[in-house]
Design goal:
CATH topology: Pnp Oxidase, Chain A
CATH architecture: Roll
Strand order of the largest sheet: 1-2-3-6-5-4
Strand content: 35-45%
Largest sheet: 6 strands, antiparallel, barrel
Helix content: 25-40%
Number of domains: 1
Structural class: alpha+beta
Order of helices and strands: HEEEHEEHE
Number of helices: 3
Radius of gyration: 15 Å
CATH class: Mainly Beta
Number of strands: 6
CATH superfamily: Electron Transport, Fmn-binding Protein, Chain A
Length: about 130
């Protein structure tokens, strides 16, 4: 069972405002930039992430039912800022780690202790070439 929703609400309202700007600059962390699927309002959510080949995998300690995950899935992608770079990503896929997935062992161990075994995989997309008219 993922981390309880009450913790997610506290983090969204309080902790993310203070910790998010610092964490997104650290290795292994980032900010997901997405739009509300109903409101269209822009949002930014701090996340723990890692690379798996060319893809970026985001941990889902609160499960795939989080609003930001639903927004990314509905939009078919998002942008992530990590280590000062903003990357456009598409092809979002939620998957469950079965223990054979190539991911950092420490990440797997920590998340397994809280019952978080689901992840969001995203693939970098090429930005369209902008031409001058």
């Amino acid at each position: 069972m993922p981390i309880p929703r009450q913790v997610a609400r506290f983090n969204r309202r309080v902790a993310n405002r203070f910790v998010g700007p610092v964490l997104s600059r650290m290795p292994g962390f980032g900010r997901v930039h997405h739009r509300g699927r109903k409101s269209g309002r822009p949002y930014s959510t701090p996340v723990k992430l890692f690379r798996r080949g060319q893809d970026i995998v985001v941990t889902l300690p609160y499960g795939p039912g989080s609003d930001w995950v639903k927004n990314v899935l509905a939009a078919g992608g998002c942008e992530i800022t990590t280590r000062g770079r903003r990357i456009a990503l598409g092809e979002p896929v939620v998957f469950t780690d079965d223990g054979r997935t190539a991911m950092p062992a420490l990440t797997r161990a920590i998340l397994a202790r809280v019952g978080a075994t689901e992840f969001l995989s995203l693939t970098p997309v090429r930005e369209p070439v902008r031409t001058r008219s």
